Amino acid sequence: MSETSAGQPTAEPNGPPSAPASSDPGTANVLDGVDPAPSDTASSSDTASSSDTASSSDTPASIDTAASSDTAASSDTASADAPAGAARPGPNPRRRRKRPSGTRPDAAGDSDTSSESPGEDETPTVVAGGTDPPGGSPENGATSPKVGDRRPTMERPRIGDTRPARLPVAPVAPVPVTPVATRAAKPVAAPVVTARAPATEPDGDEDGAETAETAESKASGGRSRRRSGRERRGRPVGRYLMCVHVRPHATQIAVLEGRTLVEHYVSRASDDATQIDGNIYRGRVQNVLPGMEAAFIDIGTPKNAVLYRGDVRYDVEDVETAKSSSARIEEMLHPGQVILCQVTKNPIGAKGARLTQEVSLPGRFVVMVPNSTAFGISKRLDDNERKRLRRIVDEVRPAGHGLIVRTAAEGASQDELRHDVERLVALWAAIEAEANRSNAPGLLYREPDLAVRIVREEFNREYRNVVIDDESLYAQVRDYISQVNPELVDRVEYYDPVVENLPIFERFHVHEQLHKALDRKVWLPSGGSLIIERTEALTVIDVNTGKNVGKSNLEETVYRNNLEAAEEIARQLRLRDIGGIIVIDFIDMEIRDNRDRVSAALRSALARDKTRTQIFDISELGLVEMTRKRVSEGLVESLSTVCTVCGGRGIVLDDSLL
After folding, report:
1. Residues forming beta bridges with residue 532, ordered by sequence position
2. Sequence-separated (6 or more) residues with CB below 8 Å from residue 280
3. Prediction pTM value
4. Phi and psi angles of residue 218, each rounded to the nearest 5 degrees, phi first
5. Does the pLDDT at position 99 exceed 90?
6. CA–CA dist 86, 79 (Å, integer)
7. Looking at residue 411, what is its pLDDT?
8. Minimal CA–CA distance to 428: which of 407, 443, 444, 406?
9. How many CA atoms lie within 13 A of 310 on its CB side?
């Protein structure tokens, strides 16, 4: 083939005949499924009927068309009617010239087609006898790969067709094609057509695509799942575990973070005089001390409780002073007066309980403040949740009472909050009715058992389990959880020591950690140690390197040892329930940045403690001064008694020398 000056191919005298012209619109175009080549080149890869691209995916319809006698007859007169510039689909396989070995098809002259698209009245060359040309049936709309080409065969749009390519419905059964060549040819396996989804459609479950039903279910049940917590392999997952060990004379509660003991509580049957925090009493004023700005109140316990001026509620009209803000306590209270008060701090040592007249009734989701305008939402919640809860509280807030929303209300519905508020309103009505029956000092409202109280205050989705070894207490806690938070009721379990053949504290390694918490010396992982000494005024904690000798230099060794000590000190304060003034003697560090990092580590570790703390920076001497609110006696005091010989001093005097 040669080209004219205009770039149009011309037929050679001895070349193969051209394709016959046809006006049948149903006849397939010769370049169906073939990518057009650039207009300035004529290559054999642009043809659809080259013998090197034989396809076995011909449809039966194309075979019938190829077998038509009319089409076969029209092929005899193709060269006479074809236009001069028309592109021919390819040589007749029977007249194909043998090309030398190792040469390209275009070099051997096997392809005479142009890059231009054929006319509308052109039809492909068909071989008489019912067989398709080696290029495959163009009615297929698919191109066959060359020998050795493993790319999948995809259907492409016709030239000039702007519609997107259609996917093949199903692979067509291969039709055996006898290769026409002068040399032996190896049979080519039928290409495997892989159907791929369009780019606009999702890839299905493999890509994690969500259906509309899944999205709707997530939206409706997201809040419930958030409150119920996470699960892994059907078991609840949480940071904390609560173990409740019931004995005939006491009940012990241990809270574990992972496998580490972080909190421990003890409740005894005789704690009506010592563990009275939260109880509401009808009290009678015994005496008022203007110099101390306090009053002693008889509430029916062995020791009188104390009520400070700042905790007194009074009516402005009852005070004769012109300015109510400067009213003195003797003007607010007088001996013999009957008041309603609540315990805010248990009696410790020689000190009596501390009282307040700002009574509050804690629920699961809210705290109600009777006869008050107080309103608040926990700062631990995010802004969106706070806005949502504020809208709900505006609707369920009872008239004449204040409400404080707790952290546990995260994700709670309006019905749950309303039910909690209604229960507290009914409880306050019963307390008021009981208070008006008599003037004698006595108990009006008792907080639930320690286990129920701890569950109410602490239990949330961060707890993976609450394990109880007493059937009656287990039923009580389970009933309470089923009422206030049914999503977590499955996490309350009964531990049968007879079946397990091991006490609950030994099963969860609480027993050994509890013994270590009673020692004055605590070892650190790197070999350092802590010495914890409690006094009447404050608690002192000394940090030592001990067996920790380090590796690089002294400053780095001291810094790493102090970091470990900061984490362990925060855990020991929670576990031993140490309150009051606390002084920590860290090992001296010369670099200021190291001191700041140790102080930040201590604050971060204490952030998980629900008891209010206040920490000051490390001084030049390596001392940290801090305070922790003291609510009750510590772990050591709850598990010990004062020695009758030394009186708690730890020494015995030699009477012979005195």
Report:
1. 541
2. 340, 341, 342, 343, 359, 431, 443, 444, 445
3. 0.60
4. -65, -40
5. no
6. 11
7. 87
8. 444
9. 2
